[in-house]
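Exercise 7. Predict the joint structure of the components listed below.
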Amino acid sequence: MAQTNPPFLTGVPELLVLRMLSGREMYGYEIVKAMRLVTGEAIGFGEGVIYPVLHALEEGGALKARRKSVNGRERVYYMVTTKGKRRLEHLSDEWKRVSTGVNSALNGNGADGDPEHA
Amino acid sequence: MRDGQFESLRLELLRSGVTPVYVERTILELEEHYSDLESAALASGLGPGEAARVARATLGNERAIAAAILVHPQLLTFSTRYPRFAQCLQSAAAIGALPGLPLMFCIEHRPELTRWVAALGLAATLMGSVLATLNWLIVLPRT
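Solution:
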């Protein structure tokens, strides 16, 4: 393979968060609920770890945050910026490329480890 | 939500050099998230104790949350990310501030300094007067 994928494995939470927020602004609990729903609870994690991902994306300019008081609760809503949309496109392309490769391997191409049989 | 529930996490993050703004926001968001989870558990029919336990487990343990934060260097303070460079800057700032320190001291302790100058002036005046008087008493009769 010509390219390496260092951000691939570590970029999955980032990809999912950006995808969830591409439709509308949400706060942390909503994001996690949406992620569980759309992934069919396939990805298990302690929900508290969503916040470092959100904060890092915000620090990188991919998200914007604003505080809103809703029914006496202090919520921090996140929304995707233009830079975040570009990042989502990039991560989506990366994911599709890698998952195509993994699917291809799982479907038996080169299953014996011999490249000539691939 | 119990007050200070995430206090140990807050302290650990601050000690590890996470930017205070992010620490406070993380704690606020975790508290809100916990409340949402607890409410959902209560609404599903669980008792208060069990709801709290489920909420806590779903949120994840504090050590894992702290570890997840610390892998993002952009969430750390400047001095934690670049300790040597920060030390150099601090030293340069300290050297730069040295000439201003006496002035700052004087401004800060203005009342004490005023009293001290007044006392010194009074003492000098008294001593001068005594010496002048003695001089006059000793020297003048001879002339």
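Discussion. Helices of chain A lie at 6-10, 12-21, 28-38, 50-59, 82-106.
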